[in-house]
Amino acid sequence: ERDAIARAxxxxxSPDRNFVTLRLTTGxxxxxLGDATLNxxxxxxxxxxxxxxxxxxxxxxxxxIEDTWQFLYRSAYWRRGPVTMAAIAAVDVALWDIKxxxxxxxxxxxxxxxxxxxxxxxxxxSGRDVPELLDSVRRHLDEGFRSIRVQTSVPGVRTVYGVxxxxxxxxxxxxxxxxxxxxLPVEEDWDTRAYLRHIPTVxxxxxxxxxxxxxxxxxxxxxxxPIEAAKLGKSLEPYDLFWLEDCTPAENQEAxxxxxxxxxxxxxxxxxxxxxxxxxxxxREQLIDYVRGSVTHTGGITALRKIxxxxxxxxxxxxxxxxxxxxxxxxxxxxxxxxxIHNFGIQELMPHSAxxxxxxxxxxxxxxxxxxxxESVGLGVDYDDEAAAAFPYEPAYLPTTRLHDGTVHDx
Length: 411
Ligand code: GCO
Ligand code: MG
Prior knowledge:
36% of the residues lie in helices and 18% in strands. A hairpin with a 4-residue loop joins strand 2 and strand 3. The chain folds into two domains: 102 residues, 2-Layer Sandwich (Enolase-like, domain 1); 267 residues, Enolase-like C-terminal domain (TIM Barrel). About 2% of the residues have low confidence. With 411 residues, the protein is an alpha/beta fold. Magnesium ion (MG) binds next to loops.
């Protein structure tokens, strides 16, 4: 049985951070990889796969991608949710990897071929104050980035998520890592009024230094109420942002109506969404400009492609999530999809560490500000078991945030 799934392995490793990977092998030895990493809740997806999905996969026809997706989504009865959708995504991407290898082509060719030469990527500049931030922007430009996300500390706030606490780390970049290897989540603090006063002054300084042309992005990380987000969007209009991301938590999609009525700052949302339903009102009412989902957390290429096609009807473009917690397998999947679809917008890039890249050998490249998935057959990523053995799983938590009176806040 050439096409039958003969082996399904759930691989957990921590080369500087935790990753969960699904590896499927066909009867004739074709190997497919899928990313199942859910930052800070990794073992839940590993168990979902190993205990509940792997037994269903053995013997199935690896060529039947859509059918397998529908089977996993509907047969569980309990639909949606980050754990379920990350598990389905891993299976889906592994099957696309296998199908492209069977076809003898890089995956983007199977998805319709390249719609562009490369994928514009944005990097993460941050600083504890404005001079440090300007320096970080400069370093990113030196590394080839042509679009930059800008995050800074806020006066009166002790620690702000998304701002590197050390000025230098891997590759001389100003990096931050979303999850930390700590027994309890690190507690950060927050003050929305101080933030709303401060951020326009930061963008004013960045524009004054780097001019009007450089695409600049900002992540509100779900912290604002709708009226606060509307106010921020308005106050940032003079600085012509590429996007304002996650301005509200958006479980309530209607919140974006209020923001949209007040500002022309483009809005991006969706890194924590996991199905097309999360975007339904946002797309139909044209409340957003960019879809932020990742292949890894939105049910794979099969599902995210449908969302991208739906978005295209409203001239909404993609800006797929690409932090370090999307593994090189998940990133490769995003790049193949982004290269193939017409309504690609931009791709987030937080470069992986050298240890991560020892475990995941990827053909992806980043040159002149543009990402490309490479020309290897399939996804173009190999998993090195020997390298992975040196990096066992270590518990890690994302941080949490409290207001100054002690109230737990969105972060
Ligand atoms: C981003 C993000 C990330 C997430 C992280 C959570 O825009 O890249 O907001 O930093 O917080 O991926 O796991
Ligand atoms: Mg974000």
